[in-house]
Amino acid sequence: MFTLSALVGVGDEWQVLSDDWQNMLAEENCRLRQEGRRTLSRYHASECNALDNEFEGWNKQEQIAFTVKMLELIKQYPMKTIAYTVNLDALSNAIPDDADLLATAYSLCTNFLVYGIGKWLLAKHADPATRITLIHDRCDYDWVILQQFNNLLRDDSFSARDFFTTIAPMCWKDCVPLQPADLMAYENMKDAERRPKNGKIRRTLELILGVGDMGALTKIIGSEAMIPMGPLLKAVAISRNAASMQMPKSTAPEYDKFNKAMDAILRADPAKVKAEVNAEIQASTKQRLAKGQRKRGRRSKSPSDAHASGDMD
After folding, report:
1. Which of 65, 107, 166, 200 has the greatest number of C-beta atoms within 10 Å?
2. Which residues 6+ apart lie within 8 Å of 58 measured at CB?
């Protein structure tokens, strides 16, 4: 399963949520320090649920209590969660053989997510002056997300396009709300895995969606949806070749070479460096003068020069 999810809220609310979220983490870290345990730099959904990395050593009861605490915090804010989950096995069978699966999943779900947010705004008769700025967690597929966002905003048939201003990647360190958004994305993904089996919504998701102003639009795109989506899948499919060209390549080796060269220059004796530069300039000047003399000597003996002189006489 692959889930792309968004938390939609009013601008002023994000700063208050960010402050409350950081205070919650600070309280949790205070408890962990008192117990002589590793503190948390942030909340990361997959690590929390797998109880690894910063959550290593936690027990299930602690994990559940922490998750409930986070959900209780989020539901205090009048936000909307919109999520689209695609079955990767079904998608793999429906897209061209040369398509990159994850890039296409990002492409497809970005289309649905932006369209879903726009449709929701139109349905609630949002003020036409409303503007949405989308921030997402930085990843290897930033270019896919931006490409599909721009495609939608260029589409005249997308009646909600004027609501959107931009979409940009950020890091969790610089954008705290990406952490609660990560929690909601994970809960929606786990719900999509579970619901087809027993038809019931995940308990933690029900806890937050059934209270206050929090609302949800969640869709699961399974194998039954692939055939009618044929034309759309062709339009959003990303080839492996395109994906490989866009994948970020490490510049660390080149940076290290440059850094070492600069360190060597900065460590060198300035007088010695100046002397070496002057010597190089003098040697280069002598070499150019010598070449010029050789060229002039050859020119007087060349057939074309002699012929030209004769014509001039």
Report:
1. 107
2. 48, 51, 66
